[in-house]
Write a structure and sequence with these properties.
This protein has 268 residues and is mainly alpha-helical. Helices cover 54% and strands 6% of the residues. The chain folds into three domains: 109 residues; 36 residues, no CATH class; 95 residues, Aspartate Aminotransferase, domain 1, CATH 3.90.1150.10.
Length: 268
């Protein structure tokens, strides 16, 4: 069973309804519950596909800081995890294989982190200290390394020390080649199904700088957005594009063709 084909949104929505009805007393910030459940869901799917407990261990370890658990009670969380496990089994996942992943999650939350040398962010940070300038584009970075390095980027410096913090990681080499080949005065940052077009070649360090850089190309940006509207594509006001994972390859190709044509037309 390929869990990546399961409708994540429907399952998360059902879990949130359970929290809001049965366990409404547990939190007054359900949006944080949704964020955490999405991280856990993704980790479970990745571990299930790779037959490991690597990703769920990373998520579970975050419940601890300086050897102190960051939540006092976890009975409700475990009830929701059990419901998630049930939903995935109903979707066709193998029970024994899935149970090992959820057992790891609950065991770490209850008894403490299990960071190993392989899963430690310190190891990933040490490997990232030197800048490699001779890239081998024929090779790809392992998903677990992308996740570790992304985790480093979003946890240092602390978000509270910045007026604005946004990180989207792109591993799409074809997209990067398209921009370079056509000499487009834009940048694209991407992580999984989330894409952000920046209307400047320079990657901004924060939102304020991004707004200043994009202001120079505002007239071209307006023409580009109007072009997309004529092609029945609505470009979001915040510029962040969420690609539906249920899109067919034909639909994805149609979007990229039209967006690519518009970018070449107005930003070459």
């Amino acid at each position: 069973m390929d869990l990546s084909a399961v409708n994540k949104t429907l399952i998360i929505d059902e879990l949130l309804r359970e929290i809001k009805t049965t366990f409404h007393y547990r939190t007054d910030e359900p949006e944080k519950c949704q964020r955490d459940l999405e991280h856990i869901y993704d980790a479970v799917v990745n571990d299930y596909l790779e037959n490991s407990d690597y990703y769920i261990s990373i998520i579970a370890n975050k419940f601890w800081y300086m050897n102190v658990r960051q939540i006092k009670r976890f009975a409700v969380e475990f009830k929701i995890y059990e419901l998630l496990e049930t939903k995935l089994i109903e979707s066709g996942a193998e029970k024994d294989r899935l149970s090992k992943i959820f057992d790891t999650l609950k065991n770490i939350i209850e008894h403490g982190p299990n960071e190993t040398a392989e899963s430690s962010l310190n190891v990933a940070a040490s490997g990232a200290r030197r800048c490699q300038r001779n890239w081998d584009y024929s090779k790809s970075v392992a998903k677990k390394d992308v996740i570790s390095l992304t985790d480093i980027a979003i946890t240092m410096p602390a978000k509270q020390a910045r007026t604005y913090f946004e990180l989207i990681v792109s591993t799409d080499q074809e997209l990067n080649n398209f921009i370079r080949k056509n000499n487009l005065n834009i940048s694209v940052i991407r992580f999984e199904s989330v894409v952000r077009i920046i209307f400047s070649k320079k990657i901004p360090k924060d939102r304020l700088q991004r707004d200043i850089l994009e202001k120079k190309n505002n007239s071209k940006r307006v023409k580009f957005i109007n072009y997309l509207i004529r092609k029945n594509i609505i470009f979001p006001s915040n510029g962040i594009i969420f690609l539906n994972t249920s899109f067919s390859l034909k639909e994805i190709n149609n979007l990229t063709d039209k967006i690519g044509f518009g970018l070449k037309k107005f930003f070459s």
